[in-house]
Amino acid sequence: MSGNVYDELKARGFIAQVSDEAAVRKMLGPKAATFYVGFDSTAPSLHAGSLVPIMAMVHLRRAGHRAIALVGSGTTMVGDPSGKSELRQMLDAATIRSYGKSIRAQLDRYLGFDGVGALAEDNADWLLPLNYIEFLRDIGRHFSVNRMLAAEAYKLRLEKGLSFIEFNYQLLQAYDFLILFQRYGCTLQMGGDDQWGNILAGVDLIRRVEGSAAEALTFPLLATSSGEKMGKTARGSVWLDAELFSPYEFFQYWVNCDDRDVGRFLRLYTFLPLAEIRRWEALAGSELNEAKRLLAFEATKLAHGEKAAGEARAAAAAAFGGSGMKDILALPTAVVPRARLETGISPAELFTEVGLTPSRGEAKRLIKQGGLYVNEERIDSLERLLTIRDVGRDGMLLKAGKKKIHRIVPG
User: Fold this and answer.
1) CA dist 103 → 70, 98, 249, 302 (Å)
2) How far apart, in Å, are the Cα atoms of 127 and each of 115, 132, 172, 350, 365?
3) Residue 197's closest CA among 170, 221, 226, 223?
C-alpha cells in the first residue's frame, strides 16, 4: 500500500487505540517523526507475542521514521502491574542487565540499529541514578492519585493487592517518554493495549512539563481464533531465541495455526503486499496449507534469517513428506545418554521428556489411540521400550500425531 504508513498499519490490523487519529496520521506523513516502544527485561528472550509491536516499528522505520527501542532495565526493577494478577517476581540487577542485552540483540535483527534511523536505549541509564526526593518534587507532583487509581491496570490489582513499588511504574514510564522527548524529539509512544493508561500519562506529562503535544498508539492484545494467548503453546512461550525455541519449532508454530488466522497473521507478521495476502487467504482446504507454509517461512526468516528458515522448511518437508533424510538434521534434537537407551526407555517417559506430550498420562492415552510413532512406526503397546536398536544413522525420530516431531541421538 502506498501513501501514509498509518493507513498501512490500520489496514493490517495493528491499531487498537490512538490518542488523536488525525494528529498521528499527520505525524506519520512524509516528514520523519521519532517514536518509541519499550520492552522490559523480564525474560532472556522476547516471544512471538512481542512481534506485533516489533513489526509495527519496522513498518514505520521503512517509511522513513526514526525508531527508538527502549530496553527497560530500569522499569524491570519495579515491575509493571498492567495485566498482572499478582506481584511479578523481582529479578536481581545483573540478571536484568543480561536479559536486556539479549533482547537488544533480538530487536537489532528486525530494526538494524544504526544510530540514525533506529536507536537502542536503556532506561536504567536515567532511572537508576534518580534522586527520589527530587523526582517526586519534579515529576510526582504532576500525577493525580485519584486518576491513577481509576486506571484499569490499577483497578484490577486493588482487590488482590497492589504494592507501592508497582504503583510507581506509571510515573517511571511517563518519565521515559519525557526523557526521550527532550533528548530526541520523540512525540509518539506505541505499545500493547494494556499500556494505554501508562502511555497517556506520558503524553500528559510532556504537556505539563514542556507545554508540547505528544501522541499515543496501542496495538490489540491478540489471541488465536481458538482462544489461546498469542505466542503460547502447551510447552510454554514461543521464544525468539533459537536456543530456547529452535527455528524448526518456530516454523512449525506458524504452520500449525488455525485456518481462521492465516489472513490475519499474514497481515501482521509478514511484509507481503495486502493484495497478495487477499489472494492467499481466499484459498480453502488443503490449498490453505500452502499459505501457512508461506507464513511460516516469512515469519521464521524475519526472526532467524533466510538460511535458518530454508532449513526449517526443508526439515518439515523431509519429516512429513519424505523429501530426504539429510534435512532431518535440522529438526529439534535431544541428546539422550547411550546407557539409558541401552537399558530402554518407555515411550511415555521419553515423549514427555522432550515436550511432545504434556504428561505421561497423555502419552499413554495417545499410544492407546495409535497416535505416537517411532521412525514412522506406530507404537502399539504400553510395554514397548525405546532402545538403542531404534537409533538409525540419523538418530531416532519420535512423532506425536501429524504435527509434532523430535529427533533423539545417543550421547
Assistant:
1) 10, 9, 20, 15
2) 22, 10, 8, 47, 53
3) 170
Architecture of domain 333-410: Roll (3.10)
What phi, psi does 157 have (nearest 5°)?
A: -95, -15
Give the start-to-end residue ranges of the domains of the chain: 5-219, 246-327, 333-410
- Find out whether 378 and 370 touch, Cβ atoms under 8 Å: yes
Fold classified for 5-219: Rossmann fold (3.40.50)
Q: Which CATH architecture has domain 246-327?
A: Orthogonal Bundle (1.10)
The burial of 244, by beta-carbon neighbours within 10 Å (0-12 exposed, 13-18 middle, 19 or more buried), is given as middle
Percent of the chain with pLDDT strictly greater than 70: 92
Longest dimension (CA), the chain: 75
- pLDDT tens digits, 101-128: 999 999 999 999 999 999 999 999 999 9
How many Å apart are CA 336 and CA 334, to the nearest integer?
Answer: 6
**What does DSSP say about strands 118-122 and 66-72: parallel, antiparallel, or unpaired?**
parallel
How far apart are the C-alpha atoms of 254 and 264, rounded to whole Å? Answer: 12
| Residue 380: CB atoms within 10 Å | 11
